[in-house]
Design brief:
Strand content: 25-35%
Structural class: alpha+beta
Radius of gyration: 15 Å
Largest sheet: 5 strands, mixed
Helix content: 25-40%
Order of helices and strands: HEEHEEHE
CATH class: Alpha Beta
Number of domains: 1
CATH topology: Translation Initiation Factor Eif1
């Protein structure tokens, strides 16, 4: 049985990621790139599996995207659509800010 190095609980009972989700300051913003393309950037995702969050966002929003460092980049303007998906994934709605 594997033990989580952060909380000391077995990996099956580890709650580190759920605690990290409620304490995040997530920022959602849009950026205009070359050729007038708009990209939605989601930052502030520390302590969680960022690749899994990106996969869920891309699936729910039906768009392409990537993980660049600690920022999720989604193709298109999804400023208003990202917050409900993050809340569904377990993030606190009051900790998510949107800006253009």
């Amino acid at each position: 049985m594997d033990i989580c190095p952060k909380c000391g609980l077995p990996l099956a009972a580890c709650v580190c990621e759920q605690i990290a989700k409620t304490q995040q300051q997530v920022e959602i913003r849009t950026e205009k790139r070359t050729f007038g393309k708009i990209v939605t950037l989601v930052s502030g995702l520390d302590g969680v599996d960022i690749k899994e969050i990106a996969k869920k966002l891309k699936s729910k929003l039906a768009c392409g995207g990537t993980v660049n460092g600690k920022i999720v980049e989604l193709q298109g303007n999804h400023l208003t659509k990202v917050k409900p998906v993050l809340v569904e994934a377990g993030f606190d709605a009051s900790q998510i800010s949107e800006r253009k």
